[in-house]
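Feature request, filed as a ticket because there's no other form

It would be nice if the structure record came with a short human-readable summary line next to the tokens. Right now we just get the raw output. Example of a typical job, pasted below so the devs can see what we mean:
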Amino acid sequence: MSTVDTLEIVLYPHPVLRHKSKPLRRVDADLRRTVDRMFELMYEHRGVGLAANQVALPCRLFVANVTGDSDQRDAEMVFINPVISGRKGSAVAEEGCLSLPEVVADVTRPATITASAYNLAGEEFKFEVDGLLARVIQHENDHLDGVMFTDHLSSTALMEIRDEIECFEADWASRQRQGEIADDATLAADLRRLEAIWT
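Raw output as currently delivered:
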């Protein structure tokens, strides 16, 4: 079972990426260390957001920094048990995913949303947001429901990246056959164990 120090970003099609996460029960030192590690990984892989599912933790948590700059810590945001409401308008922009590196496509999402969550102080916050932050929040919140950005694509757009997706699937299958990755039953048992700890 993973510890905070060994957390790494998992790649598609790891089953945790299709797992609907459960709410966190508490904010404690372990959670704070986990958040620190998630920010480290996000910056290391040049991302602007990272969900707990992407480090194989089945809990409703994600981090974001739309600058993508580790020197701009004042732009860091932590979302615990987030909820999205008040969706308005429509906007199209290119998206990628740290669990599908180098795969990008245009995704249509609501232009403005209302987001609420808890921070690391255990305080609830709520705000209306648009632009890149709104997109990042929606993208990462989707992860917590087992939804990936590719699920929002038309069949035509999906066909354009199908070869890249199939390469990830083939690599995963090969690594499982070689024993580099645990089988699905073991991964499912790990998720159940982690849920008992985190949620």
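Something like this underneath would help us a lot:
Residues 116 and 125 are 6 Å apart (CA to CA).
The chain has one domain: 4-198.
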